[in-house]
Design brief:
heterodimer; A: mainly beta; six-stranded mixed β-sheet; five-stranded antiparallel β-sheet; B: mainly beta; seven-stranded mixed β-sheet; four-stranded antiparallel β-sheet; 11 strands; about 50% strand
Chain lengths: ~110, ~120
């Protein structure tokens, strides 16, 4: 079992729709959870961090964490073509941050 | 306030040569991480360092790869006797602290893209 699993996609949504990205992780001791966005040929950049169960909202982005289910999700409201990128789920179970393989998102204008 | 600085951005080496990749963390950051990314794949953890200490190198191949973060100067990822399979993007990231608000948040450099001919 991979430490962090994501659906590789691609996920295609129309402009203005809600994009839903999901992630599961294997280490129950994990305390820190992140979503990074990576445009093609660029480096990852932090979108959201979440440390406790529940929802965390920041603008059009909402991160959801359920530690009992070992599940993290990211919702993007009012999706824009500029949101088209690969979204990396990341978990920090110990000294290192482990990344999922990423989900490709395409937002169609 | 400069971000994480990596150089070179692009490096071409022939098989058997050595590659040295450098990373200067963000000001105030004392934790450095190296990741490797193959085309169309995710980030693979290689090594985590603090000044003069390797904390976790569980993701780094046992042979040909080494990393350091000296008291003075940048962190260096060294790959000896490169092979074609080493061709990848190598990203360095730094973080400020492991505790409290913003714990373990990584800031990435632009990456160094190694091509082995």
């Amino acid at each position: 079992q991979k430490e962090v699993e994501q659906n590789s996609g691609p996920l295609s949504v129309p402009e203005g729709a809600i994009a839903s990205l999901n992630c599961t992780y294997s280490d129950r001791g994990s305390q820190s959870f992140f979503w990074y966005r990576q445009y093609s040929g660029k480096s990852p950049e932090l979108i959201m961090s979440i440390y406790s169960n529940g929802d965390k909202e920041d603008g059009r982005f909402t991160a959801q964490l359920n530690k009992a289910s070992q599940y993290v999700s990211l919702l993007i409201r009012d999706s824009q073509p500029s949101d088209s990128a690969t979204y990396l789920c990341a978990v920090n179970p110990s000294f290192k941050t482990i990344f999922g393989a990423g989900t490709r998102l395409f937002v169609k204008a | 306030n400069a971000g994480v600085m990596q150089n070179p951005r692009h490096l071409v080496r022939r098989r058997g040569q050595e590659a040295r990749l450098r990373c200067s963390p963000m000001k105030g950051h004392s934790h450095v991480y190296w990741y490797r990314q193959l085309p169309e794949e995710g980030l693979k953890f290689m090594v985590y360092l603090q000044k003069e200490n390797i904390i976790d190198e569980s993701g780094m191949p046992k042979e040909r790869f080494s990393a350091e973060f000296p008291k003075e100067g940048p962190s260096i990822l060294r790959i000896q006797q490169v092979v074609r399979g080493d061709s990848a993007a190598y990203f360095c990231a730094s973080s400020q602290d492991r505790l409290g608000s913003g714990a373990n948040v990584l800031t990435f450099g632009a990456g160094s893209r190694l091509t082995v001919l």
